[in-house]
Each structure stands twice: as C-alpha cells, then as structure tokens.
Specification:
Tick-borne Encephalitis virus Glycoprotein, domain 1, 2 helices, 31 strands, elongated
Amino acid sequence: MLRSMFSAISGLRGHQVMMDVIGNNIANVNTVGFKSGRVNFQDILSQTFRGATAPNGGLGSINGAQIGLGMTVAGIDVLHTQGNLQSTGKLTDMAIQGDGFFVLGNGQQQYFTRDGAFDIALDGTLENPASGLKVQGWTADAQGGMDTTIPIGDLLIPIGQRTTAQATSSALIRGNLDAGAAADATSDASTTLSLYDSLGVAHSVKVTFEKTSTTNQWKWTAATPDDTGAVVAGEGTITFTNSGLVATAGVVMTTPLAITLTNGAAALPLATFTVAQPAVVGPPAVAKVEGTFDLTDMTQFSGASEPISSANGFTSGSLVTFAVGNGGLITGVYSNGQTQALGQIAMASFLNPAGLLRGGQNMFAMSSASGNPSIGQPGSSSRGNVTTGSLEMSNVDLATQFTGMITAERGFQANGKVITTSDEMLQELVNLKR
C-alpha cells in the first residue's frame, strides 16, 4: 500500500518538473534566439516478487513478477531547431539561417548564442548591448586582408575613421573612334581623366583624339588646364589595323605624360610612365600592366567616336556605413565611394549542441558533453549563413506547449488521486480493528 503512495509522490515531482519546463518555454515565447526545452521521463527501481525461470521438464518458462517503484526525470533536452526569422531592418541585427552559434567573449571566456541583436559600442567594437560581451571574429588589416587561421578576437567597426588617399598609378581609355571621320578638327573626340595625387587631390586631364591624314592613324593629346588655357602634358599617335584593332606598334609616345604638382603632393606615378602597347595584334590576352596609360582597348569602327576613360586612385574618405554578407564578411563603405573589408564574423559549431549549458542572457557555455567548438566562417563545414537586418525568434510552439501543459496537469492530478485513494485504503485497513 505504501509503495503506491511513494510511486505517486515521484510522479508528482516529475510532472512538477515538466510543468516548470513548460512554464519556462512559454515565458520565453518571444525571447530572441531562445531554444525550447523538453522533459523525458523514465521508470526507476522495480521490486521483484518472483524471479523468472527457464523451461523445466514438461513445464514452460515462468515470467518474473515485479512492481515498479515510481518514475524519475531522465533528462531535460534543449531543442536546437530553427526559429522563424523576423525582419527588423536594423543594420547590426543578425540571424543565423542553419546550424551554428555566434561567438561572444569578454577577454577571458567565450560564450555562444543565437541572439544576434548586436550594436556598435562606444569603442567601435561590435557587441551584445544587453551583456556587453564582444562579438568575436577576425579583423582585417589596413589593406583589407585577413588571416582566418589566427585566434579570433573582438571585431572593430570604426565608424567615422578616415582612410588614406591612394595616388593614381594606372589609367585606361577604351571605346571607339569613328573609322569614317574626316582628317580635320571635326573628327575630334575627347574624354576627361580624374587623376589623384598622394594627398588625394583630383587633377583633370583632358585626352583629345584627332584623325590624321595617315591611314588608320589618330593623334592624341593629354592636357591639363591652367589660367591661360590647356597645358599639354603628353601627346602621341595611335594606329589601327584594317580590322579596327590597335596595331602592334601603333602607339607612339612623342612626349611623356607629365603633370606638374604645386600642392606639396608627391609626383603622380603616371608622369614617368609611357603609353602601353599590345603584345600582339588584337585584344590583349592578359590583364593590363599596372602603372600605364593604356590605349590598347581602343577600336576604330564605323560609328560615333566615344572614348571612355577610367583610372585608379581615390581621395581620402571616412567610414560611413558597412554591410555584412551571408558569409559573415563585414565590408566598410567610405564617403569616397570605396569599399574595403573590415572583418570576418566567426561562427562556432558543436558535435553535440544539446550538451551545451544555458548561461543566461540567451547564451550557452560549452561542457564536457558538448565538446570543444569548431570555429570557422559562416557557410562552411555545415555552419549556417548570416542574415542581416533580421533576428531569429524563439522556436517555442505554443500549441505543443499548451498540449504538454494539459498532459502535465492531468498527470499531476492522476498521481494525486493515487495518493488519496491509497490513503482511503489505509483508512479502511485501520478501521478493520473496530
């Protein structure tokens, strides 16, 4: 009789734990990145009244007789299923589509989370503003290069920081010159190059093409303006084949391209460079050599003369915003129109993520059951991708939780009924003496 009461007590305790887990799940139904829990039960020790026997002679086997002594909580699992993504539009909000965890650190210990509600701290680092923990990854060097084989550290996004200027080292003019143009001033076609010096100051160079009396030949003139008019900085000729492409020896440099600077900047590299020539007749098969004033992509076909120019180099600019790609690459956008890699977000994966321990504040800590984290780039080695401007919502399913709540309540009531019924039977037993 007493066994049933103690078994029922274990049932009350177990269903109370089940209700506690369900209550915690429902409480976190709107918690970003929350992963719901699930209780598993198992029976405990059973008392054997009769052991089992094997067949003997003409008798068959006899099954054993046991009475169970109740139940216990076998475990509380964390269900790491994908939660729905909610768009927020905030640049620093990030969600993981797939497996993996963001890595947060305080300089001494690492934590792992699916909560991507990040922000930029006062020192420019990317952090979780609720805990102050820093988002971990790899920071790019001054040229935008990164070494993802080194240990991870705090990510820095220095909004407002200025970048150095880059002087122009190569220029390219492409486009078509009209094969039917007359050899006079009416055939002139021009384009303007913007060349930057070492201080980031832009200098305009107007390149004019004029058809000459020589078959398939054009004269080009590069000039810079001053107070009295254009100052010739360089000139030469360009010759085309009868196929409309630049001839092998078609570019002749008669004057070096020289631009005088009076603002204290270093001389433009183009001042000592010559006009590039193709290695063979026809379009060049290799990339342009850096540091050349390149005309090898010019063509001469019937049609309007439309030379188009471009050059590298840029003025100084400040970091105004940034973007995060699906692979976790943080790219800075500067006020001068340039972009450069700032860093790479790290992502951790575990062989047994269910073995992670909850650490509060939407964070997990590794344990001996989870194993050590495998840290790498998002989208690699089964790790998920990063979605910016979104947050992952809780994976709690209210329908399942309410059903579980009913189950826990009825189980608790049934075990309570066992205790009252056992009490009534004991009362009847005591009353037998009367």
